Structures are given as C-alpha cells and as structure tokens.
Amino acid sequence: MSNLLSLLVETADPRPEYLAKVLGVKQDEVERELAELRDSKTILGWMPILNPEKSASEEVRAVIEVKISPEREGGFDRMALRISRFEEVESCYLMSGGYDLLVFVTGKTLNEVAAFISERLATIEGVLSTATHFLLRPYKERKQMLVEDGLLEEKPPVSP
Amino acid sequence: MNPDQFVANHVKSLPRSGIRDFFAIVQEMPQAISLGIGEPDFITPWKIREASIFALEKGKTSYTDNRGLLSLRKEISKYVSSFFGPDYDPRSEILVTVGVSEAIDVALRAILNPGDKVLYHEPCYVSYAPSVSLAFGQGIPVGTSPQQSFSLNPEAFEEAWEPGCKILMLNFPTNPTGGTADRAKLERLARFAVEKDLIVISDEIYAELTYEGEHVSLAALPGMKERTILLHGFSKGFAMTGFRVGFACGPDWLIEAMMKIHQYCMMCAPILSQEAAIEALRNGTEDVLRMRDHYAKRRDFIVRRFNEMGLACHLPRGSFYAFPSVEAYGLNEVEFCHRLLREEEVAVVPGTAFGPHGRNHVRASFSTSYEKLVEASERIERFAESLASEKVDQTAV
Hints:
The structure holds two protein chains of two kinds. Chain A is of the alpha+beta class. Chain A has helices at 3-11, 16-23, 27-39, 77-84, 110-121, and strands at 60-68, 89-94, 101-107, 127-134, 140-141, 144-145. Chain A folds into two domains: 3-39, no CATH class; 60-136, 2-Layer Sandwich (Alpha-Beta Plaits), CATH 3.30.70. In chain A, 31% of the residues lie in helices and 21% in strands. In chain A, α2 crosses α3. Chain A starts with a helix and ends in a 15-residue tail after the last strand. The mean pLDDT of chain A is 92. Chain B is an alpha/beta fold. Chain B folds into two domains: 3-44 and 286-392, Aspartate Aminotransferase, domain 1 (Alpha-Beta Complex); 46-284, Aspartate Aminotransferase, domain 2 (3-Layer(aba) Sandwich). Chain B is built from 13 helices and twelve strands. Chain B has helices spanning 9-12, 18-27, 46-57, 70-83, 99-111, 128-134, 154-160, 183-195, 252-265, 271-283, 285-308, 333-344, 370-396; strands at residues 33-34, 94-97, 117-122, 138-143, 165-170, 199-203, 228-233, 246-249, 321-322, 346-347, 349-350, 362-365. In chain B, β5 (165-170), α8 and β6 form a beta-alpha-beta unit. Chain A binds chain B through residues 7, 10-11, 13, 18, 21-22, 24, 149-150, 155-160, and chain B through 17, 19, 22-23, 26-27, 30, 32, 34, 36-39, 43, 125-127, 175, 294, 297, 300-301, 304, 347, 349, 353, 370-371, 374.
C-alpha cells in the first residue's frame, strides 16, 4: 500500500492540501496519485460512517444468507453480480460455509426490505433459499465504536 | 505548628518538577492542543483490557507473590530472552514492580549508601535526579548533545567518572530526546563499567519504539548481565501507562535486595495489571508493532515540520518525542513554552524540565493524532514567524 493510500485509510481525510502537508510532498503530486487511484478503481468512493442514533436515520438494514446454484460457466459470479446490481444491496460477499452469498440490504421501512427479498431476490432463478436477519442495533461500524471509548476527562494534559 | 519542621530536609530540598509547574498552567487551558503528554495516545489494546476484566470476573483480587505472579515472570523471561537477549531465571532473577519508576527507586535504594555517586545522562527522565537524592546518593549528570542527536556518548561518561561512583544509569531510547545507543558505543561503555566496577541500571522502557537500527540491550553484552539491572515495562510499547506494571531483571542477589524494599513498601504490583501484562506478552506484540509504525510516520511529519519552520530538530531514533531547539528565536525554552501556550494554545514542555542540559530545547510528543499534529504544527509555525518578525523589528531599532 502506498504512503498516500495508507494515510487515507488511517485519517479518511481526502483533502489534497492536507495530505500533501502530512506526507511532505507537493499538492499536485497528491492530486495526480488520487486521480490514478480513482481511475484504477482502487478508491471506489467515499462514504461517512454514521452513528444511526445520532444521524436520525430511520433506515432498516437486513443481512441475508442466500443459497444459490452455481452455473457451469462462471460459477457463482454471474448470480452474485446480478444480485449486487440492485440499488437496495449495500454489500454482497461470496462466503464459505452453510450458504453462498451474504447480502446486506437497506430500505426505508421493514416492509420495503421484506418486499425486496420476497419479490425480487428470492424469485431470481438460481436462488435456492434465503434466510433474513434484521439488524437491531449497531455497536461498531467499520472499526468505529458507536460508544465513546477511552475518554478520560481527567487525563493530565502534560505528563512526564 | 510549623509545617516546615515536619518535612524531611532531603525532601524539602528537592526542586519542584518543571513538568508540574507547567502542568498547572496547561490545566487552565483545556482547549489547548497538548504535545506535552508523556504517554501513548492509543488506548490499551482491547484483548489486554479484556484479560484484566476476565481476571476480575474470576475473582482474582488477592495479593500475589511479592516478586509478581510466577506465570507473568515466566512470560517476562521468555520475552526478554527473545527481544533483549539475556536469559533470566523467573524464580530468582525477575521482580515485577509498579512501573519502571518504582523499579528505579527500589534499585537505587538497594544499592546506594549515603554519598555514593550515580552517573546518568542528561536530558533524562524527570525522576532520575530526585530518585538519586531520595536514596541519599549523589548524582553526576553527563550531558548528551544535539550535535550527536543526544545519543550515548561513552567518552563523556569516562571523563565524568570520579571516585565513589557506584551506579551508571541509562535510558536509551531516551525520554525526552529520542536519543539511542548503538552497539559499538554500548560495548565501549560496557568495558568502562567493568573497568570501574559499576552497577548499571538500564531503563529500556522505550526499547520496542526504536525506529532505526536494532535495539541493543546493555545486559546482552559480554560480562554485563552480572552487573546490570535491566528495567522494562508495559507503559510505552504496550500503551498500558495506567496499569502501572513494570519489571526488573538482574543478578539474583540484586533482585533479592530490591525485593526486600519492594515487599515492605509496595507488597506487590496490582494483580489485575499483572494479568493484563501476561496477555500483553502472550498476544500483544503485534499491537506494539502496529503502534510503532504509527509513531514512526508521525515522527517523520513533525520533525520535518520543525525543521521547515527553523526549529532545528534531530531525527529521534526512538521513543515518541521530538526535541527541537528553540535557540534561533532568541527565547529560552521556558519563555518559548509559555508564550506558545498563551499566544497559540499549544503545549510543549521546556527541555529544562529534564535537567539543565535540556536548555534551549522543548519536548514535543508525537504520540497524538495527525489532525492535532497538523494543527499544532501550523500554530507553532505562525508563532515562530511572529518571533522572527519581532527579531527583525528589534534589529531595525
């Protein structure tokens, strides 16, 4: 991983002037590398990590275990890509173990998610079964704890 | 009642810590960015915290053996052998202490008779000189220099030696300078220690946070194990400052002498911290490497920025402190720190808090987030520019 990429992963701050300052390189060098990373699809996009309790999000999330039948040419890929293309699908992974795909789905309401699963996902030819679990409460998102951790108000500002 | 008559003379004569004075001022400014913190900004890895919680749940709330849990001493023995080199018998050559600070105190008290002399380098950790005084010893500080990146200079110790010297006390990598000691210089120092029949107290608390080259332990050099007390702990590398757990490794007769004091003044290190330390040694070394890599990147950033703004700063090869010179701006280190805090709300620590040889320098910890380091560096640069323009104005007058 390049210095720029590891810094981006660590700080999640994409401002070129900031990155250039930390890395000690020229801003246009950073801009060029960022463009290359985007063009090569190494960086796919940016998304804030929200605390649903504070962002007033009413979004419903479900995780679905999907069993599918692999195809003679293409294995699981064609089916996985077909499922992934739905707007409602947040992430989709090929899994080892008792099912084949793990699919994260979001929707505005429980009914909307349920309808997507029963009417769209489960009816795709080649989908053998689905098992849906609704997410009730997050505790950690993308390595971020949703409760404040390690804040010691009395931590001395100067120590030996 | 005259309180003065009830405070022992040798305590009364101890100077107040420069850190303490500065702490009082910074505490009044909670919005300031502090680069004055002498501890990791990482929280102790969860697996280590969890081990301590598990021990509590299991009801492990008793005293332990004065020397520490045997299971911990066995882990320490294995770790020290693989990381530092020498082999120590967990039953007789290792003492678990309440941080390295206690180990320093106990070691000095175990060895010194009143008036015995202790050679130590300076700038150094704040407790060295007071600990020697409290043990009724006489400290002989030996300066390390910015020209040599505050690294070990054995010739300076040889020149400073005088009859009555009994202990050589070292801390490489060093708080506050980040200075280190290379093998050739340590070998020369080892020959000097043997020739002058000195006991060496080698505080290697920052050993894992060595960024360039290898960390060489003095205790691993030929002839040194028998006359060295190797001090180490969990505060810095494993980010466990609040657990207060460290250890001393040394010859059995010295560990036994230290243990006598430890058992009466401390009894034992807290059992929950000892349990956490076991987990740290068994499963925490990867976390240490991860944190070290973070510190190394932050070090490169802050040292580059100090040099860009005219505060000459050597590259600290270990620890997590930069120690730039403020001499170019015509303020002494105390004035610099106070004005920087007042005018730009950034706290760094005057170098003289670590002994007179720290004059004209300040200690800035880079154990903090990029966000704060970037903001702090911009504020320091603005302050440095304002000092430079003051200087120009004075020249014009």
